[in-house]
Fold this sequence. Notes:
CATH superfamily of the largest domain: P-loop containing nucleotide triphosphate hydrolases
Strand order of the largest sheet: 4-3-13-12-11-5-10-9-6-8-7
Helix content: 40-55%
Shape: elongated
Distance between the termini: 57 Å
CATH class of the largest domain: Alpha Beta
Radius of gyration: 27 Å
CATH topology of the largest domain: Rossmann fold
Amino acid sequence: FQASIYIAISADTKEELEKITSQLESTLSARLFFTKVARYQQIEALQSVLPRGENILNQRRNLDSSSAALTFPFMSSELVQEAGILYGINKSNNSLVIVDRFSLHNANSIVFAQSGSGKSYATKVEILRQIMQGTSVIVIDPEREYKLLTDSVGGTYIKLSTNSKQKINPFDVATSSTKKRDLAEHIQDLTEIVSLMVEGLSPKEKAALDKALLAMYKHAKKKQPLLKDLYVELKMLEQTKLCDRLERFITGSLANVFNKPSNVSLENRLVVFDIKDMPESLRQLMMLIVSNFVQNEVKTNPQKRLLVIDEGWLLLEHEESARFISGLVRRARKYYLGVSIISQQANDFLKNDYGRAIASQSALRILMRQDTTTIKNVVSEFKLSEYENNFLLTSDKGEALLIADKNHVAIKVVASKDEHPLITTNPTEIYDL
């Protein structure tokens, strides 16, 4: 390619102009760029940088394909997909960035951002617009951030705690799980849940648990079994130590939490599970149980749905929960489900095998402001350019690098005057409402 690269500099005074010019020459020289000021050709230079497509200065050099590609700060200047929703305004040309996540190679997404960079606002904007497009949305909310939005759209808000009336039975099985393969997959997921409950299983206990779960479903026939039914099967297999560790969930202080039939529904267009009042030691377990409950529902009744998991880094604290959610993300596409994981801990994901698997199986990536402790891993994982690296280090609140399959676009997240009051995270604005 024959290319001309011109840089226009403006300043209020000649002294300031010379200072900026000197700084720019030093910066480019450090990167092995040779620069030349267009002395006595300023008119031609100005005409060449105007958006008229005229190269009056006509200073050219040859570039190969890879060198030419590096002159573009982002891989895609425009991104508009039919039937999509508005994610933001393109930073490079002010065009609308409209993406249909369900038309990508999968509908999963991740959002990595520092605290205060606007990830909650961006997530709520998407939820509101997905609902308007007919997508059902389920949210796991560890910090009680979605109450206002839920009430505003007439959604269902479910508070799960050790004394709440709403219950989810971890052992509910999808009515479609009649095939051996489906049941085996379900039992594998339950193994992860039980393992997290009892803080780990030995190989012998895993084998016994597998037998007990199969026997439990065989004896339950068309009924949904409970944890106490599993306890009976384990007793028959003489798994005394395992039964002792399950005791508190059956007859102890947590008997009313995990040993009751489910009495919640996902029929509303927005359903939020608030787990803020769950003890911290049980939050990951409840996140897994809710995710499994959603998985069973989408298997029974596949339709366009979005599962949003806020503070997703919590699921990587234990191998069982990390393995479970990685499997759910991998299988989601089969059931017309998109899984959105939001986290301010990018390193927790990108330094974890299951976290990297989740990131690689998310076709939509929304990267907001990063700091020097996370940027290296983010740039390496997503193969970002130097321009994108600098953008993520210096971006303002509400700005993001959106990656949809192979398209990279820098955006500014925006909301209408009607949307903003429903999704604001500003404490002063919330108080005024």
